[in-house]
């Protein structure tokens, strides 16, 4: 990604101008900045002859990882407010969402921030505000970015960073997604169970037996599915609460080393989320989606997005499909033996993606950094 393209891509986030309140539009607010126009302007502003394309060494490149729901914490954003344009991002979010996201992010309460309808927009905005901090402290990281990936809702932030969506339109899509997923989760008592297993763990067999247990309780069409592949022998299983409780009670039978219920309101990334598909599909049809300026990898299959319709299709499918994060990490960091790994930056609240990366690829993790969003730090200077 050359300097001109980097400027153009990140200007999409930094040039936020949402003029209409959330209550005044049914479709997303119009994008204020056009990617092609930015590219033309950036090229025209460049003095002298166009520089030759420079092939950077792998160790000089960077990868950005965007966290998802569950990483939110009261106080996130406090360490970002002194950086240019961050308050503008939150002001624009206020207009799109219709409530003060910055106030909720800084002061909570946590139980309100944890609601799906709030935490998805909060993580989205905090992550892009963290990119603004990174751009201010280390602009070369943005200029040399070769790939991005986001976990679940983090994929929307990755696409905005890469210039595939304008900030306000991306946030509006996240708003609709969060509201639809919240409604779907309230229809059926469901949840998500983190499972650390072993090579001999029987994840599929365990899910089938948990479904059968639910049938004996009179539950029709029970759901119990692997909803996230995190790292070797670690999965998240989602579905009816009764199924997850069964798995916890019988964990030794399936060679599970550790299980833990996640603090989420529903069985995300399973068929229980099917009611959320149509609202998201409709809003994605209405917004302007472009081809990313850097590689963005899809949660559905780990592959790079190729064109706008590909993005629309897979973002909808992602809601009812397992997050293949382990597979995505292998795709992003695959390289010949002896080749240096890029520098990796987790942009957003928490360090969960760094922890997962360590278990997926220790060598890649050695070049990992986290961009702090709660308190100011000096790590990136």
From TrEMBL:
Primary enzyme class: transferase
Superkingdom, natural source: Eukaryota
Database matches in InterPro entries: Ac_transferase_dom_sf, Acyl_transferase_dom, Acyl_Trfase/lysoPLipase, Malonyl_transacylase_ACP-bd, Mitochondrial_malonyltrans
Listed GO biological process terms: fatty acid biosynthetic process
Main location: mitochondrion
Protein name: Malonyl-CoA-acyl carrier protein transacylase, mitochondrial
Species this protein is from: Delphinapterus leucas
A Gene Ontology term for the protein's cellular component: mitochondrion
Domain Malonyl-CoA:ACP transacylase (MAT) positions: 65-376
Protein's pathway: Lipid metabolism; fatty acid biosynthesis
EC number: 2.3.1.39
GO function terms (MF aspect): [acyl-carrier-protein] S-malonyltransferase activity
Recorded catalytic activity of this chain's protein: holo-[ACP] + malonyl-CoA = malonyl-[ACP] + CoA
Alphabetized UniProt keyword annotations: Fatty acid biosynthesis, Fatty acid metabolism, Lipid biosynthesis, Lipid metabolism, Mitochondrion, Transferase, Transit peptide
Pfam families named in the record: Acyl_transf_1 (PF00698)
UniProt record similarity statement: Belongs to the type II malonyltransferase family.
Localization per record: Mitochondrion
Signal peptide per UniProt: none
